Amino acid sequence: MRRTNHAADKIMSIATGMKLYNAQLSPFAARCRLAIYAKDLDVELLDMPNPELEPEFSRLAPMHKVPLLVDGDITVPESETILEYFEDKGLGIPMRPSDPVAAARMRLLARIGDLYVMVPMGELFTQINPAGRDPNVVAREMAELTKAMGWLDHYIGSPECAVGNTLTIADCTLVPILFFFDQIGPMFGEVDPLKNFPSAQAYYKGVQKHPAAAKVVAELDAALRRMMGS
């Protein structure tokens, strides 16, 4: 008689039917995809923009931002909230450390990435076109970005995982951020932007040994090439 793993069956039934409104080039959607891949969740990716999906998306997402997770009658906006939702529901491998010190380090790295790296990097993306570039804005935001990357470099834990020896929510956040940091440097004359941040550089290379991280980097690269070629 076949023994049923009720816990595993419950996890799979919870995950089945979930949908994620996604944008391939969004670093916020990318962090959710990384968790989905690492956890091997059954989540349908709905790529935006899509005119056919727009009416339903607008109804479900008053902020009109991706990513947006739909789990039955439940909608969960905002990438960080989605990642925590996966953890709270116990889906797939755990990506939130049980040790309070490791959990605090995980949240710190994600917060530095979101508040201090992403913000100046976002401003720099508005300055990509040399024709409309403001040198003062570039100098100011590059200084802020360099300072924030120094903080990130200080706290990254190991060459393959941001915290401990398994993927966590911090990795979901940092992999897309470091992808864009590595890409934006050459746009402003810095051929190898990670060279001044050895821990971050080693980590960005090492974390891609994890198939989920490598897949997300490849997706971001392909989406960026499509955008730049258009």
From TrEMBL:
Record flagged with keyword Nuclease: no
One annotated Gene Ontology cellular component of this protein: cytoplasm
Alphabetic keyword roster: Transferase
InterPro entries with a match to the protein in the record: Glutathione-S-Trfase_C-like, Glutathione-S-Trfase_C_sf, Glutathione_S-Trfase, Glutathione_S-Trfase_N, GST_Omega/HSP26, Thioredoxin-like_sf
One protein family per Pfam: GST_C_2
Record carries keyword Repeat: no
Location of the GST C-terminal domain: 99-224
PROSITE patterns in the cross-refs: GST_CTER (PS50405), GST_NTER (PS50404)
An example molecular function term from Gene Ontology annotations: transferase activity
Domain of life from the UniProt record: Bacteria
Domain GST N-terminal: 16-94
Name of the protein in its database record: Glutathione S-transferase domain
